[in-house]
Amino acid sequence: KLLIVDFGSQVTQLIARRLRELNVYCEIHPFHVVTDEFLRDFDPLAVILSGGPASVPDADSPRPPPAVFNLGVPVLGICYGQQVMMEMLGGTVERGAGTAEFGRAFVSRTDLQSDLLKGWFAADREQVWMSHGDRVARLAPGFAVAATSPGAPFAAVADPARRFYAVQFHPEVHHTPSGRTLLENFVRIAGFDGDWTMGAYRDQAIAAIRQQVGDGRVICALSGGVDSSVAAVLIHEAIGDRLTCVYVDHGLMRKGESEQVTGMFRDHYNLPLIHLDESDLFLSALDGVSDPEEKRKIIGRLFIEVFQKQADALGGAEFLAQGTLYPDVIESVSFSGGPSVTIKSHHNVGGLPEKMGMKLVEPLRELFKDEVRELGRELGLPDHFIGRHPFPGPGLAIRCPGAITREKLAILREADAIFIDQIRRHGLYDDIWQAFVALLPVRTVGVMGDGRTYDYACALRAVTSVDGMTADYYPFSHDFLGETATRIINEVRGINRVTYDITSKPPGTIEWE
Ligand code: XMP
User: Which atom of ligand 1 is nearest to the CA of 509?
Assistant: First the structure.
């Protein structure tokens, strides 16, 4: 297995992700736990030293134990990892002085044909992504330069005899297009066959859950979304019925959703699942409320209350399971305390653990969305379930601008179901990040048969996106839009006008509230 020593870079997890893509098993451990004894127990086949925010010339900057370089295994230093490696092996690092490079840079080859860069330089230069202030000033003995950039004369260096390699740029990020090739070369040099699988990850995750939970009990708020579902099924495999799932139906679910979720998890997976129908509670608290933030806050607060009451009724549990993904982890770290403004108060169970004094079980914390889907497949969740579009915690409340009524929700559910049905029938579902109907708080005049109608207007929303942070509207054909509008107006009583929302994000958001 491969050891990644983490010096605190924002992108360390991406190294792990790239290695998993190469079917190599790795673990990330923070530098302060990596001692000589740790290394002996871990017995790595190769070591990667990550980037990080510290500065090598500072007296107290972090170091790996020198033993890392005496294991006889290949070592790759990235960014800060390169600098610390050079310094420890006898080179020098200078503090940034007008040599900083941030973002895209180009490196060119030297005479050294390094195995590390095999497959690089099809053109004369390669694009890489840099993010450094300091840089290596003098190489450690034994190293030679394999690639240089204007700001980093030692952009890639190698000591092939000892199989030590170090790069100033970040091969793990998307903006270093040949970075994957570099990492692949490194793991091949280290002798990995690339035979690790998501099945192995699942076994390892199960072992880790067992170790963390011991004979404790776990409760989990199951929303029916992919993340909480995969987390729940995984934890259930690990600890069986010491897991209890709670599905809070706030009356703001889509058509047939509660039946699908409870049916699948209770009947198919045999998960201990408590289905709480709290629609009266939520809908009466939302009665007459039209401000979007107020809606979100009411739903968030009630959710915590209901969940807490249920946990108490079960006699408590030491652990709360959450389907937190790696992007959620980085965002909350990098923005915590920062000057970012709240665009929307997202509803999740984030306030729960502190309130309830519970410890968190977050088995997906290291994974990215597509990896969670793969893990879900590994756990036997059906494809149509795993590929489901995201659905926000506050549900239909934020797709019904203005005050919510049961009547409007019923109309919205029907229209939404038809829109999704159309998308599936036309084979477009998987090309779209998210699609839904928003019911507008206006009535407009129409004519059907020989009569006048005065009914609601609705908007169709469908976007493409990679992460939900930015999005573009989906370019449906006019035929598709026309057919869908006709179906909605003919099949749903209460809607007589259909519009298509062609706003991208930014400036729009995906949801309407
Ligand atoms: P916006 O509307 O902010 O949405 O562009 C971005 C993505 O986040 C989802 N979303 C939420 N998800 N709780 C959630 O779990 C929420 O409160 C929430 N609000 C928005 C939205 O559906 C889209 O995928």
Answer: 5
